[in-house]
TrEMBL record:
This is Beta-defensin-like domain-containing protein. SUPFAM superfamilies: Defensin-like. It comes from the Eukaryota. Residues 27-54 form the Beta-defensin-like domain.
Length: 56
């Protein structure tokens, strides 16, 4: 249980950082997807360490 108190702030920082990066790609017409893009889209950059920016 003690590790949850250590992980919670880390998770919040990761989510907050990812939210700021998503806006940059969305203004360029892209969407952020976890790990890889679906078929009609292609990867053009990274939104975060685990998210890829996809554009049609």
């Amino acid at each position: 249980m003690k590790i949850l108190f250590l992980l919670f702030p880390l998770i919040l920082l990761l989510v907050q950082g990812a939210a700021g990066e998503m806006g940059r790609w969305e203004t360029k017409g892209g969407i952020c997807s976890f790990v890889k893009c679906q078929y009609p889209t292609r990867a053009v950059g990274r939104c975060s360490s685990v998210q890829v920016c996809c554009i049609r």
